[in-house]
Structure formats: C-alpha cells, structure tokens
Amino acid sequence: MSLAGYRAGTEQRRREDSDLSRTMTKNDKIPPTAALTWRARAMPTMDDVARASGFSQMTVSRAFDSAAPIRRETRERILEVAAAIGYFPNRAASNLASQRTRTFGIILPTLQDSIYLPFVEGAGRVFEAHRCDYLLQSIDYTKGREMHAISSLLAHRVEAILLPSIGHTVATGRFLRSLPIPLIEVGNLPAKPLKLAVGHSDHEAGYLATRRLIEAGRRRIAIICGEFGTTTNARDRFNGYRQAMSDAGLSVADDRTAQVEHAVDAGLEGLARLMRAKRGFDGLVVAGEIWSAAVLLSLLKYGRRIPDDIAVVGVGRVELSPYLPVPLTYVDLPRRETGTRSAELAIALSQGRKVKARVEKIPVRLVEMASG
C-alpha cells in the first residue's frame, strides 16, 4: 500500500465518523456527554509504516534505531511516512525485549505552586537528552502518601527514583532501604541519606537569610516557616535562623515565630499573628517561596515601610521578586541544578557506572535586592 492509499483509507474512516455525527440533530434528547464519546481505534503499527513507505518491516525497524546502519535517505523517507500516518515506536515492546524501561520516577512534595518546576525542568532536560522518559508523582507534603507514589512508580519498573528529602515514616524508610534500584533524595540534604542525596542545606539558607538582617542592623527578627512536624525543610530553616540569632547574642521569642501550612492564606494568617504580638519586629525571614510575595505585599498594606520599618528576606527564589513594589531579597536555592545533577546521577547509576560520592552538596546564595 502506498502512502496515498493509506491516507485514502484514513479519510474514508473520517467520513464515516462525520456521517455518524450528522445523524445527531438538535432535537435529539441525548445527554451532552454522549456527543463526546470516543470510538477508539488501534494506533498505526510498524506494518502500516512498511506498507505505506514500501520498505520492509526490518528496514523500518532500523530507521527508528539511531545506531542501526541504514542509508540517510531511507531513514528520512521512513520517518516522514511515519509522521504522516501518526506512527510512534512501541516503547513498551522495546522495553520488554531489552528488559529495561529507560523510565525514571520523580516524586514532588507538592503541585500546589510552581517552586519545584525548575527542578523538574533540570531533570527533564537530562532525561530527554538521553532519550529516557520520566513519570511524576506528588505527595502534597504528606509523608503517608509517599508509599503510594513509590508503589506506582515501581509498578512501571522505573530504573531510579528522585524523591523529596522532607523526611519519611519509619515504615517507608525501611521499605526504601530494601529496594534494589537507586534512590536519590533531592532538596534539603538529609542528615542520614537512605542511599544517595543531591541538594542544599536548608539550615544554611535559614542562617544566611537571618544573618543578612542582623548585618542590616535588625535585632527583633521574626520568622514565618512551615510546620516542623511536616517537613525537615521547615525545621532546618528554623534551626538556621535560631543559630544566627544565637551567634549574634539575640533571643528567639515564641511570639516572633509563626509555623504555618504550605498555602498562601496560611502564610498571611501567620503574618497577622506576628503583627498582633505586642513586642513587634523589625526584621522578617519568610522561610518559603510560596509565602514571600504575598507577605511582602501584605506588609505594605499594613502601612509598613520596607525596609525602613521592617526588612524582609525570603528563602527560595520567587519569579516576581524583581517586579514587586519593593524587590525582594532572598536566598536562592539551587533547584534547577539539583534536578540536573540528580538526573545525571540516576542515568549514570542505571548504566552501571560508579559515582564518586553518596552526597553532593550544591551551595545556596544570597540575592540582594531592596527589601532587606
């Protein structure tokens, strides 16, 4: 069958669908969803490409193998025909034959905001460059959901998993240590990695943000952070804040600490609690990207001058930082670099290569703007 013949057959099927749709008039009492029913058909196969291109199935198969010896003109012709008829190589069949899926798993702490997108972009570019796939799961900052996410990825026979280093339940930690595939904890480096880890120190991030305020002459410094029992990130950032305060001989007051849930409204409620405290504050560490911009804007609505009345430093990059009424000073966390390095490590391990270290630390850095 020629490509023209294949297209003619496809056009005939489209006409049949069109004739069927015209039988449904406005007066037909059919539920709105009925018109959206999908009549499934099989995807085009390699046989279809062979018939439409005039080449043998073996030649077509070689055309989709970049390492296979085949004339450039032949490969281009076959790929052109495949694109025209909507054929894609059956990765599942190839994986079954090779006993390798070339698929990797990524577990994110949350999908509620965009702060982890640079990490996914960094990892995704590496996987795509190696012609690998990746699957995403999210646990919404709930440790109890981690087992479900891991089980789902294992069911797809992923070759390695990049998972958030926010702490694990005892049962999940025990299960993870028993897995025969590489596990790479990413983000805030854990004190005792399960297997391997790539990321930064949230303790250093909290310390650096607080020290910046102290160097600016602030002495009554408050902090908005996540709940200590939910993630190690929150605990470590707070401990960095507390150490910086201690090193400077400053006290940490309960009424200048607001632990909040991972939501913008929760961050604003935490700010409101700090504002109601009698002793007040002249510096504020916002220890999470999700709250930073909203908190700064809210302080301006309260009538506070930034940084004259209250200096503000965030932890984590916010894309809006340079465009806020007062550009936000923040500690940049290496999310994209972490994604890139952890994916490169996963690829290396899947190929049986040795790695130099179990833990790779990427530094954080202060980005100075006008708010603090």
SSE topology sketch:
Layout (H helix, E strand, L loop, with lengths): L2 H20 L23 H8 L3 H7 L8 H14 L5 H8 L4 E6 L8 H13 L3 E6 L7 H10 L5 E4 L5 H9 L4 E6 L7 E5 L1 H14 L5 E6 L5 H16 L9 E4 L3 H13 L6 E4 L2 H13 L9 E5 L13 E4 L2 H16 L8 E3 L3 E3 L5
Parallel strand pairs: 1-2, 1-3, 3-4, 4-5, 5-11, 6-7, 6-8, 8-9, 9-10
Antiparallel strand pairs: 10-12
Helix pairs in contact: 1-2, 2-3, 2-4, 6-13, 9-10, 11-12
What do you see in this structure?
The chain has 13 helices and twelve strands. The chain is α/β, with parallel strands linked by helices. The strands form two sheets. The protein has a six-stranded parallel sheet, sandwiched between helices. A six-stranded mixed sheet has the order 7-6-8-9-10-12, sandwiched between helices. Helix 6 (about 115-130) runs parallel beside helix 13 (about 335-350). The mean pLDDT is about 85.
> How many strands, which pairing sense, and closed or not: the largest β-sheet?
6 strands, parallel
Helicity level: 40-55%
Quaternary form: single chain
Q: Low-confidence stretches at least 5 residues in length (pLDDT < 50)? A: none
Supply the helix-strand structural class.
alpha/beta
Question: Nearest-angstrom radius of gyration?
Answer: 27 Å
The rounded distance between the terminal residues' Cα atoms is 71 Å
Strand content: 15-25%
Number of strands: 12
Strand order of the largest sheet: 2-1-3-4-5-11
The dominant shape is elongated
